Every structure is written in structure tokens, then in C-alpha cells.
Amino acid sequence: MNPHLSLLQAYPFERLRRLFATITPNPDLRPISLGIGEPRHATPALIQQAYCDAIMGGGLASYPATLGELPLRQAIAHWLQRRYSLSVNAATQILPVNGSREALFAFAQTVLAPSQDQARPLVVCPNPFYQIYEGAALLSGAEPYFVASNPQRNFASDWASVPDTVWARTQLLFVCSPGNPAGAVMPLSEWKLLFDLSDRYGFVIASDECYSEIYFRDEPPLGGLEAAAKLGRSDFKNLVSFTSLSKRSNVPGMRSGFCAGDAALIQQFLLYRTYHGSAMSPVVQSASIAAWNDEAHVEENRALYRQKFAQITPLLATVLDVALPDAGFYLWAAVKGSDEDFARDLYAAYNVTVLPGSYLAREGHGHNPGAGRIRMALVAQTDECLEAAQRIVAFVQARNQSP
């Protein structure tokens, strides 16, 4: 067996399953889960129709090319132009992927090179973070380095705190903007710092942007490629951005996204994926073209989240330390005492599932930045999320009154 497998920690939802294993929740209350970030708004009809039409048109009768069909890459390029005012070459700078999760993992296997000395290469990650970053680093034979986060800035990564000795060993940097779980968006000044460091030390930047289309400000979040273009880096040197239709278009089961950026990196990633066997189904490609070409359903989806968060955030703020994020569909709330105890006791008493924040972070710089926090995914319909919020309020009030 691959010895690096022994370094992997249990996935957050497996840890949650273990936490709840001996608990029988209140049978008088229907279960409501705010635990997993699985979009549950309706899939747009135009995407479903394109999917069905592709099946009926023989879309399953041939092997797909790993590069994807040109019409899909063109649809993605047109979306990048509309969304970010970018000119991206559909032939050399775009690669369709089966959702951003598998691509982020596979990209690390492509980029990371074995160390020629005793010190393993480093992969720099946010903290809290998406656990795929850690797993991708470890299974590549690299070592993850978790950056300190700033609770006063919505848990944004403190890139300036990373020592030069760390950057010198870094081969890959994962950034997530908007962030999971706290929803912070990186400004242009942070991108400039990271690009300067990449130029100095030669590491690659993988930008995870799967929450980019769910936001609460008037101005949409800045993307990595957009930041590069604003700073005169139109070749996107050492930068690849990853995004997905799952959150944008409510199709998590379709497993469709893309990566785009540095043509030299895309070329090598394509070579890896040719052997990896990760070509996107022609049927999914057809449905994806319909999704990327339409913005009306995205605007409607964003409006649903804005209405939902506008109702639920103030309600939860009466009992928890929580505020509206910059973007994304999570609330990242502080709780009194242990986050595991909070999640377990809430589930037992009120049949509501939330995720302990410590499961989404690692010990670093003297503490686990997720400790004493919970993540709530407001992905269900508003009435269900509102009921969950009301139960949480009742739970916290009862908890505060206990001796």
C-alpha cells in the first residue's frame, strides 16, 4: 500500500458520523442537516433539458476526449469574458474537469516534484481549509504548511506571516477565495503579494473559486485570473484557477467544472489527465455548455441565498457570534465551549446537524483556529433553514440557562 495513506486524517463527515454514532436524536423533530455544503436549490430546467437531449442524441455512444469538446471550452471562455473581462485562449488555457474537487487533488499530483534532499516539498494551505488540499499534499509525498488566519478579518490567511524559509521549500500554494468556511474574499493587494512571492520562489498557485457566484456585496468577488490581468500578468504565469457548476448552477451530481490559466501548466495537466482517465462525459459537456451560457438562473440562485441569509443571519446573531460572510453559503459562528459538544448536544436535543469547526482546521501556531466554531451550510430551502435556525436559538437559550 501507498505509505502516505497512513498520514490521512478521517474526512470531516466521517468524524461527524463517529461523533453521532451513539446518539438517538429527538424523534419528535424532523432531521435538518446544515452539515454538508451540498446545494439543494432546484436544478435549472434548461440544464436538465440539455442533458436529456444529449442522451437521446447518442451522447453516450463514444469515448470523450480528455481535452473536452471545443464548444464547451469556448462557452467557458465566453463566461470568463463576461464575468471577469478576461481574454482566455480556449485552445490552450482552459481544461474541463469533473468538478473542482477531483481536479484540485489531481493538479497537486501533476505539479509536485519529489524532493532531492531529506526535506519534503511544502504545500501551503489556508487554515481553516478544504481537506482535499491536505490530502493532495500528503499523497504526493509533500508536507502541508498551514498559514495562520486572522479572526478579525473573517479568518483570512495571514500570508505575510509565512517565513521565507517556508516559501523557499514551497512548490504549491492553495488559495480559496471566497473562502471555505468563513467566506472571506481576497483583495488585489493579497494577490499581488502572492504573485511576487511566486515569482521569487517559483511555486505554483492553485486558486479554488467554486463559491465565486454566491455573494452578498454589490461587487462580485475578485478572481485569481482577474487579479493577474489587473496586475499585468495576462500570461497567468504559475497560476491555475479552478471553478465548478455545482454551487453556481445547483448541479453537484453532474460533476462539472474547469480549470484555466498558465498554458504550460494546463498542457502538463492535460498530459496527466490523459493517463488519469478523467475525461468529461459528452452528455455532461452538453449540459455544461447550457449552464455556462446562461446567467439568468445564476442571478435567481444568488437572490435566493441573499433572501435566505437576510432572514437567518440576524436570527442566529441573537444567540451566537455570527455575521454575514463576504460570499459563499456558510455561516461560521463562534460558540461557547467545545464545538464538538455543541454539535453533538444540538443533534441530540433538536435533530439539527452542524459541523464542528475544529474538523475543518489543523493545529498550527499554537491552536486550532476552528475550535469553538461551527459551520452551518444554508443550502436547503429557506423554510427548512429558518426552522433549523429557530431550533438553534432555542437550544442556545436553554443551554445558557443551565447551571
Question: What is the secondary structure topology, with strand pairs?
Answer:
Blueprint (H helix, E strand, L loop, with lengths): L11 H9 L11 E2 L11 H12 L13 H15 L9 E4 L2 H12 L10 E4 L5 H9 L3 E4 L2 E2 L5 E2 L6 H6 E7 L11 H14 L2 E5 L15 H7 L8 E6 H5 L7 E5 L1 H14 L5 H11 L3 H22 L12 E5 L4 H12 L1 E2 L1 E2 L16 E5 L4 H20 L2
Parallel strand pairs: 1-12, 3-4, 3-7, 7-8, 8-9
Antiparallel strand pairs: 2-10, 5-6, 9-10, 11-14, 13-14
Helix pairs in contact: 2-11, 3-11, 4-5, 4-10, 7-8, 12-14
What would the keywords be for this entry?
403 residues, alpha/beta, Aspartate Aminotransferase, domain 1, Aspartate Aminotransferase, domain 2, 2 domains, seven-stranded mixed beta sheet, three-stranded antiparallel beta sheet, 14 helices, 42% helix
Care to describe what's here?
The chain is an alpha/beta fold. It is built from 14 helices and 14 strands. It has helices at residues 12-20, 45-56, 70-84, 100-111, 131-139, 164-169, 188-201, 224-230, 245-249, 263-276, 282-292, 296-317, 339-350, 382-401; strands at 32-33, 94-97, 122-125, 143-146, 149-150, 156-157, 170-176, 204-208, 239-244, 257-261, 330-334, 352-353, 355-356, 373-377. The strands form 4 sheets. The protein has a 7-stranded mixed beta sheet, sandwiched between helices. It is globular. It starts with 11 loop residues before the first helix and ends with a helix.
